[in-house]
From TrEMBL:
<keyword id="KW-1003">Cell membrane</keyword>
<feature type="transmembrane region" description="Helical">
    <location>
        <begin position="146"/>
        <end position="172"/>
    </location>
</feature>
<keyword id="KW-1133">Transmembrane helix</keyword>
<keyword id="KW-0812">Transmembrane</keyword>
<feature type="transmembrane region" description="Helical">
    <location>
        <begin position="203"/>
        <end position="226"/>
    </location>
</feature>
<keyword id="KW-0408">Iron</keyword>
<dbReference type="InterPro" id="IPR017896">
    <property type="entry name" value="4Fe4S_Fe-S-bd"/>
</dbReference>
<feature type="transmembrane region" description="Helical">
    <location>
        <begin position="81"/>
        <end position="100"/>
    </location>
</feature>
<protein>
    <submittedName>
        <fullName>4Fe-4S binding protein</fullName>
    </submittedName>
</protein>
<feature type="domain" description="4Fe-4S ferredoxin-type">
    <location>
        <begin position="319"/>
        <end position="350"/>
    </location>
</feature>
<dbReference type="InterPro" id="IPR017900">
    <property type="entry name" value="4Fe4S_Fe_S_CS"/>
</dbReference>
<feature type="transmembrane region" description="Helical">
    <location>
        <begin position="238"/>
        <end position="261"/>
    </location>
</feature>
<dbReference type="Pfam" id="PF13237">
    <property type="entry name" value="Fer4_10"/>
</dbReference>
<keyword id="KW-0411">Iron-sulfur</keyword>
<keyword id="KW-0472">Membrane</keyword>
<dbReference type="InterPro" id="IPR052378">
    <property type="entry name" value="NosR_regulator"/>
</dbReference>
<keyword id="KW-0479">Metal-binding</keyword>
Length: 402
């Protein structure tokens, strides 16, 4: 892992440990010991150094602000999202410098950050298929395989928490939407039929991706595809689509910006195939936002719908007992909006509530600890594509096709 990736994983592991420590009961200590054991077994020198830096920074912050108030849900969520946004910005800069130097025939001063493969769902899905069906791993984009697996597992347990708590694209979308609201004030909503038509876009994209991953490449052809130049250069092909704009890619990018700026959570609601996939799997999650009818102020005759008005996905929370909507990102804004005297909403099962620190800890377990174990124990993270091969692929990039 590169320095930026190591610092991000160390910060995530710290958040995981903090979230566990907020729990009470005997189960906390075995869980914390397992996390420490996993770190000891899988971490390398870079990661130990990153953990020392993160721990030192947090300790310095604690000494400077000893009387800081308790961490609220909003502060935790925004802290997590901005941490990943900063990390992605640094990763993007590092990757661009790497490719620029590679194209000039120089030896890159900075290593290639493998986390860029997270934007390759097809490579990740095909790598996961090859791993499951043939027992072979993808040597060129293993981080893509790990990302698809980790996000899939997280959705099965904690729903779309990644969307509400971690996705850096969601933060960028909110910034773009706020900018539009300053220039052209007002929240704009579409008629139901048009909203449904636009939401179908992400399902069409998801269907296309699943078709390629599941059906387009036969199992017997997987080894050949994973060894092909096109697959090896998948990350550079993806980058070229956005940075070397053609008429088609320019129109696609313009449409993404238009929907994202015009409507609140426009990208998440109308375009993101990852969000569609996580929402689909999230239906199977045992955790969801639940409303206690006995506690709810509406049962006492009050016309309260604060939870629904707070929901960025426009879900009518006040009309359901358990939210099973595919658009719910488990962001907890509805829970925070519920009047404290009622305390009628919670995230969890019928019998158990999942606190904010525990939700954050579970998310960090999937996003940081599992990739660490894949890297340290299975050697599934760093691309094995030789530098000279990658340089050659960059030079013939316009001519590569499936």
């Amino acid at each position: 892992m590169t320095a930026i990736e190591s610092l991000t994983v160390a910060a995530g592991a710290s958040a995981l440990a903090w979230g566990l420590l907020q729990r009470r009961g005997w189960a906390v200590w075995p869980a914390l010991l397992l996390v420490i054991a996993a770190w000891v077994v899988a971490a390398d020198l870079w990661l130990w150094g990153a953990l020392a830096l993160v721990t030192g920074f947090l300790g310095w912050r604690g000494l400077r602000h000893p009387h800081a108030g308790p961490a609220t849900t909003e502060r935790l969520r925004e802290g997590m999202r901005h941490l990943l946004l900063l990390s992605w910005a640094l990763v993007a800069g590092q990757y661009l410098i790497y490719v620029w130097q590679l194209g000039r025939g120089e030896t890159p001063l900075l290593a290639r950050p493998d986390v860029v493969d997270a934007f390759l769902p097809i490579a990740g899905g095909l790598g996961l298929r090859a791993w499951g069906q043939l027992g072979m791993t993808d040597p060129h984009h293993p981080a893509a395989t790990v990302t698809v697996l980790v996000l899939t597992l997280s959705a099965l347990l904690i729903g779309r928490s990644f969307c509400g708590w971690a996705c850096p694209l969601g933060v960028l979308g909110e910034w773009l939407h706020r900018l539009r609201c300053r220039l052209l004030p007002g929240e704009w909503t579409l008629p139901r039929w048009l909203d449904g038509v636009l939401r179908a876009q992400k399902w069409l994209v998801l269907g296309f991706l699943l078709f390629i991953i599941v059906l387009a490449v036969p199992t017997a052809a997987l080894p050949g595809y994973l060894a092909s130049p096109y697959h090896q250069a998948a990350d550079m092909k993806m980058g070229a689509f956005f940075f070397n704009l053609t008429l088609l890619s320019g129109l696609c990018l313009g449409w993404v910006v238009l929907l994202t700026a015009t409507f609140r959570q426009g990208f998440c609601r109308y375009l993101c195939p990852y969000g569609a996939w996580l929402g689909l799997l999230g239906v199977l999650s045992p955790l969801r936002v639940r409303r206690d009818e006995v506690r709810c102020l509406r049962s006492l005759g009050h016309d309260c719908d604060r939870c629904s008005r707070a929901c960025p996905s426009r879900i009518a929370v006040h009309q359901v007992i358990a939210v099973r909507n595919l658009e719910c990102s488990d962001c907890r804004r509805c829970i925070e909006a519920c009047p404290k005297r009622a305390d009628a909403l919670h995230l969890g099962t019928k019998r158990r509530r999942v606190s904010t620190p525990l939700q954050l800890a579970l998310l960090c377990l999937f996003l940081f600890l599992l990739p660490l174990l894949a890297h340290g124990l299975l050697d599934l993270w760093v691309s094995q594509t030789p530098l000279e091969v990658r340089r050659h692929l960059l030079h013939i990039l316009p001519y590569l096709s499936h």
